[in-house]
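JOB MANIFEST
job_type = single_chain_structure
chain_count = 1
residues = 294
[input]
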Amino acid sequence: MRKQSVLISIMLCSVGLLFASGQVNFQNNLNEAKKQAAREGKLYIVEFMTERCFSCKMMDEVTFTSPKVVDYIQQSYVPVKVNVESFDGFVWKEKYDISVLPTIMLFNSRGEVVAKYEESMGSQRMLNVLHEHNAPHNRTTSESYVQPAPEIPPFSPPIAKAAPTVLPSAPPTPPAKAVAVHYNTAPPSTAPPLRNGMENDATGLFEFQVKYAARSGYGVQIGVYAEYGNVLRTVEELERQFDRQILVNISNLNGRVVYKVIAGGFASRTDADNFQRQISTGNTDYFIVDLSAM
């Protein structure tokens, strides 16, 4: 009877530990994670993944259920998942040059990149990485550093295991084309603000000329759109507000045509960076692109 009581006690303790540890509670909104990290003076950890990445699923089942990893992340980090096959995740994939899954990136509380790991990590390896970068100079409590980002679609927890996934360097479609577009329309009385990646209602009569653009220099990517009407509206706003060459890069996302609107014509990255700062507001997250790679 005594042995049975001891056995039951051990089983209850094990069950208690299981429920206490749980798993890492990832956010799916990078913008909110940045704000929280700045407000609480924490780093934030971002896992770039897809639903088809079996190594990502392995980390969910093993690494991110380890009690030590769960406790340490909950105390010291703000965790986020980015599905690179989602519409907004595709933009982040390009910005941070994500070519291997899973990729783990760490950011300090100011939103600056601290480290990038293109590998699947076990629990001990993950703990070592988390401890290594959780230094005082990476933790500054302030909301002034926050730059809003596109929202990321809800994440569905994965369930299987496999080896690392290498993303193809280019989609299995004809090469994307950069097209210089010049539009002339009668401007409305007020210019609605540019919204990165947002879909606006675009109706009306547009006049424009199209020609292939030289793939050289740098540009500032304004947004990625699925509807061509929204491309017209955004280009019209850009040309009305800024005297700059506007480019439209036609690309492919999971078999779907998407349009990247880019303010181009910059001879150097410094010039593009100055323009980016000129047009950026608290609700945008534009970034520099190398036109030779388009």
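[summary]
The chain has two domains: 19-166, 177-293.
Helices lie at 2-21, 30-40, 54-61, 67-76, 87-95, 123-133, 228-241, 269-279.
exit_status = 0
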